[in-house]
Amino acid sequence: MLFLDITDTDFDRQFSAILNRSEETSAQVLETVRGIITDVRTRGDEALIDYTNRFDRLNLTDAAGLEIGRQEVEAAVAAVPAEDLAALKLAVERVARFHEKQKSQTWLSTEEPDILLGQKVTPLDRVGIYVPGGKASYPSSVIMNAVPARVAGVREIIMVCPTPGGEINPAVLAAAHLSGVHRIFRVGGAQAVAALACGTATIPRVDKVTGPGNIYVATAKQLVFGQVGIDMIAGPSEILVINDGTGTPAHIAADLLSQAEHDELASSILITTDRSFGEAVAAEVEYQLGQLSRESIARASWEKFGAIIVAGSLEEAAAFSNRIAPEHLELAVADPFGLLPRITNAGAIFMGHWTPEAAGDYLAGPNHTLPTGGTARFFSPLSVDDFVKKSSIISFSEQGLKRLGNDIVRIAGLEGLEAHGKSVGIRLGLG
Amino acid sequence: MLFLDITDTDFDRQFSAILNRSEETSAQVLETVRGIITDVRTRGDEALIDYTNRFDRLNLTDAAGLEIGRQEVEAAVAAVPAEDLAALKLAVERVARFHEKQKSQTWLSTEEPDILLGQKVTPLDRVGIYVPGGKASYPSSVIMNAVPARVAGVREIIMVCPTPGGEINPAVLAAAHLSGVHRIFRVGGAQAVAALACGTATIPRVDKVTGPGNIYVATAKQLVFGQVGIDMIAGPSEILVINDGTGTPAHIAADLLSQAEHDELASSILITTDRSFGEAVAAEVEYQLGQLSRESIARASWEKFGAIIVAGSLEEAAAFSNRIAPEHLELAVADPFGLLPRITNAGAIFMGHWTPEAAGDYLAGPNHTLPTGGTARFFSPLSVDDFVKKSSIISFSEQGLKRLGNDIVRIAGLEGLEAHGKSVGIRLGLG
């Protein structure tokens, strides 16, 4: 763990290891994934069965075995304890309620005579949701991807999830059921993304692929982008806490560790204007680490990518935070709303001392799919906007075309696009 | 040109050449572009100067020569005829007015006691606009990319534009000036995209790269996606006209040709419920082709990728159009607003007989940067949304955390993320 003063002369150099911790896609990964995509596009289900049997150690013999049927889903729902199911239901409801507020409407501007202009909002027809398998197979990931799609009005939501050794978390299937997923396939990796993007005889082609995944999944999403939409490229996760010396060091320490336990590449950073508060948090992290079941992961993350930084002012802390563009930002200060206008880059902002990051991970309502690794500079949280697209509406009357026709023809001429001008001229009897 | 009935038994097979006309990125292009990006990331300005001198036949010796300075821009503005400048000014004003309507506000939901939830909207800090050089260097491209960025509140707009043989269209520089571009660099190709994404000593790193380009530019945008934002992957352009037998065949023919003159890969399609109208349009296209200065391009496009299709009903025509998801869709029918609800996939929709596509290309107001090649299934026109990002706002009071705390801890437990639960438990004195 780094303990730095923001005015240290070699601050940038020391801090750079944390900023540059994301895996770069090697030429080899790129080539492997490109090969898998081509194979799935060419051989379809056959390729999908081969990869799935090989990577997930299954013995599928026909494509029908790729789908997880209704009975299997119902059995999973029945296997989840009632209280867990109730918590998942609450999450689905709250996430749906928040995302309802993101819906935008088709509009038409009628302020100008003779020319109507507007924007039509239409849900995507079919989307694919990638859900990782194995240990990081989280029901909350299903909810956070499927519910916004459902709220947007997507007609068909397809979920893919690898089942290494044939296993799948029943809570994941239950979450899919509660969230409105229509069909589920037991495929993962680059091959699953390729199947969704290209379509096979069994897996229908979708319009957009969302959801987290490893470097192969991320690279596949990047390569099919343009053929289908994708949400964002996810990297390692991070939390940054801004503190002004108020609050309880043990609470902040717990928040930093909730990020660190995710994986060894996760980064947890505190920036405080109060050095002694920072020191108290450092001591608390050490103490609490010893009590965690996932201690080894959290400790590795904290030692390599943890940092406590002392800043001269909250303004300085906010400027630093904007440079990092953290996925999760806690404003653990006395007046978080006072600080909010200074925050320009962050995935989600957790306000004050009673809003730990975990409050937003499951059921506050906002999406937990957030831009990582500094991409909050330009990416937004997953939202209903990701599951709709827009079309411009342009409607001229004869009078409208007459009013603007000469200028249209002039610009067409300036660009050397004569036929553009003629399509106006022929209507107006020009030229 | 294909003249088909939508009920023809081999309609799909015959039509597939048009659907699959986009260039696929070869492994070789991918590798070349990947090499250029790595080179620019490593050698910075030096690599940029090398590529620019080589590809654009310049003799730059230092990085300062990469920038097009204020004097050069002012000279260009002075060189553009007053009437052209006035038309460009009108376009800037109208495009700005339309895009103002797309701005969304930061919101905070206060309907629930103890828990505030919301979404903060923040402009991107710095964006890069790619403008092609040579013959397809259009002032309207500058306007359509820069104005939405300016309306969104982007602090710095950087434009890159190759100058093959040292030449640049003065109208392009004038459009940049009128649209609020802050700095302009004479670089193009994959190297320009790489410079914007990684930053060099001379060209500042941006948060997002937008704008059209050839296959090298498109591939570079795809590969830097995730490091920076990008708008969309542009492919060959197309127009689809739906007609019900009303209107004037010569007008529709002119509209089809305004698309065909763009490039040989462009596709112009008419689908009409009136066979004789379709035949009249076919004859008009032949007649008008002979009058075009860009006849050879338009004829090649029309012969290879033009089509006239006879449909049994407008419903059938709309369903076909949704399958194509055209970039430009003209509803050249008596009641275009009646047909609008059936249109689910289209970049821009041109309503009725007095709205030729060209009316939307320059100055109606909506953006002309539209999803091509069927990507209107999931992409939207370039908009102010492309130049802002959102951050979730989550604010719990002690009471709020108490109310939801147990469910948060339960889901954390279900996912095996103990430290997540502890960050809540430690505040509430649980466990």
Provide the descriptors you would attach to this structure in a database record.
431 residues; Ald_DH/histidinol_DH (chains A, B); Rossmann fold; globular; amino-acid biosynthesis (chains A, B); 6-stranded mixed beta sheet; 15 strands; homodimer
- CATH T-level topology of the largest domain in chain A: Rossmann fold
Q: What is the subunit arrangement here? A: homodimer
Measured as a percent range, the helix fraction of chain A is 40-55%
> What gross morphology of chain A would you assign?
globular
**What is the spatial order of strands in the main beta sheet of chain A?**
1-12-11-10-13-14
Instruction: Catalogue the unreliable spans of chain A.
Output: none
Number of strands of chain A: 15
Class of secondary structure makeup of chain A? alpha/beta
* Largest interface by Cβ-Cβ < 8 Å: A-B, 125 and 127 residues
Beta content of chain A comes to 15-25%
EC number (chains A, B): 1.1.1.23
GO molecular function, one term (chains A, B): histidinol dehydrogenase activity
Catalytic activity (chains A, B): L-histidinol + 2 NAD(+) + H2O = L-histidine + 2 NADH + 3 H(+)
Enzyme class (chains A, B): oxidoreductase
Folded structure, characterized:
Two copies of one chain form a homodimer. With 431 residues, chain A is an alpha/beta fold. Chain A is built from 17 helices and 15 strands. Helix content of chain A is 46%, strand content 16%. At the A-B interface, helix 2, helix 5, strand 4, helix 9 and helix 10 of A face helix 2, helix 5, strand 4, helix 9 and helix 10 of B.
